[in-house]
Inverse folding.
């Protein structure tokens, strides 16, 4: 099958959405399918990338590390038409997503959508939430998603949101999988972990607590920091390591200073991708109070690394942490410190048998299989509910790739 992904977010931008798209692309290609990505330009992108079409874009309002397509859509449509795509999968509700809708309509093929982002959690980025209201989000999302053939929901929370928005197309809960081999790393030795902790000023006697995410307000890291003094009352050897970059770092650093926690809390900034597994493995516990997640890749990464979680709960996490040896959830922000202290006192061990079971459940392979099964069902659904128009004879893919390269030269980054 020839599949077109349409997204405003892709590498070299670092995000859970970009990671999930790349994971799915790789899994589908392993099964012999062809996946082409239509996305935004990026100043850090390579000059030529195989099977990627980039359209001129600008940074998103009040969210400068994300971009949105502003032109080049006709060029992208022409490429999509040349490729004779058989299915469109949109991963954004904005520029590239609207293009995907147009392409699907003109080619008369199914359009599948994944709802990645809970926009109601991000309204503060636009005029401090004073212009765009939740009701605006509801009407816009309902209009966009209902014009798709089917929608992938990474968690039950997304299904509940779609129903609240009055979306009435086929839905399927498919949690995003991860490439577990990137976290089950036999090359990581105990000495490497000791060296990393030493670099952080953390000894083997310290309790290393890890927060790893985009450092943004909606990730709720401030809850962890605010309640850390209580954690220290029970565990004076506790140390909090906050990994990631984002617009909320300065405010968090001020909070750390205000609480006089500089000796116990440190910020590393963003770390290289191949070093992320080291941080998970070096930590004793992974913590999060985020309530904005739809797919929660960091939780799965922590478990794949063998690190137990103490996190604010939702339907997805209740299913993920289905054995207390994996970790525990808490219901409200104010419950973090008590939940953490009680869990550590229990001294539960995450054994290899349980970890192996969980690795299968969160694997990229399972994710890819479930997505493709949904594709097949939606192709049949589309053919039963829309006029079926036979595809014209397909052109050789290599000729199309040459044309992509030549046309890209005419589009400014």
């Amino acid at each position: 099958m020839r599949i077109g992904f349409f997204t405003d977010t892709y590498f070299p931008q670092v995000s859970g959405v970009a990671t999930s798209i790349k994971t799915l692309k790789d899994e589908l290609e392993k099964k012999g399918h062809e996946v082409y990505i239509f996305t935004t330009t990026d100043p850090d992108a390579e000059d030529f990338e195989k099977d990627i079409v980039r359209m001129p874009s600008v940074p998103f309002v009040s969210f400068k590390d994300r971009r949105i397509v502003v032109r080049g859509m006709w060029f992208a449509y022409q490429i999509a038409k040349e490729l004779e795509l058989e299915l469109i999968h949109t991963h954004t509700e904005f520029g590239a997503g609207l293009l995907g809708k147009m392409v699907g309509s003109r080619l008369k093929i199914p359009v599948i959508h994944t709802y990645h982002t809970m926009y109601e959690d991000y309204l503060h980025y636009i005029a401090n939430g004073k212009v765009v209201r939740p009701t605006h989000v509801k009407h816009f999302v309902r209009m966009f998603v209902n014009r798709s053939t089917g929608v992938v929901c990474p968690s039950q929370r997304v299904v509940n949101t779609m129903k609240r928005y009055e979306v009435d197309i086929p839905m399927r809960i498919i949690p995003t999988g991860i490439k577990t081999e990137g976290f089950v790393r036999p090359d990581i030795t105990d000495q490497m972990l000791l060296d990393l902790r030493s670099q952080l000023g953390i000894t083997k006697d310290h309790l290393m607590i890890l927060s790893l995410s985009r450092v943004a307000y909606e990730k709720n890291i401030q809850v962890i920091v605010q309640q850390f003094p209580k954690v220290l009352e029970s565990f004076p050897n506790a140390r909090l390591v906050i990994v990631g970059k984002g617009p909320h770092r300065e405010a968090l650093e001020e909070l750390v200073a205000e609480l006089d926690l500089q000796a116990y809390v440190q910020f590393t900034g963003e770390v290289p991708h191949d070093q992320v597994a080291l941080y998970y493995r070096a930590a004793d516990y992974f913590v999060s109070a985020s309530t904005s997640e739809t797919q929660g890749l960091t939780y799965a990464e922590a478990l794949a690394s063998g690190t137990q979680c103490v996190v604010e709960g939702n339907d997805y996490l209740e299913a993920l942490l289905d054995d207390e040896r994996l970790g525990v959830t808490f219901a409200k922000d104010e419950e973090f410190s008590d939940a953490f202290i009680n869990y550590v006192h229990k001294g539960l061990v995450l054994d290899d048998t349980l970890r192996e079971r969980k690795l299968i459940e969160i694997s990229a392979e399972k994710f890819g299989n479930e997505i493709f099964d949904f594709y097949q069902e939606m192709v049949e659904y589309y053919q039963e509910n829309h006029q079926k128009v036979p595809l014209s004879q397909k052109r050789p893919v290599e000729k199309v790739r040459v044309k992509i390269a030549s046309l890209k030269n005419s589009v400014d980054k």
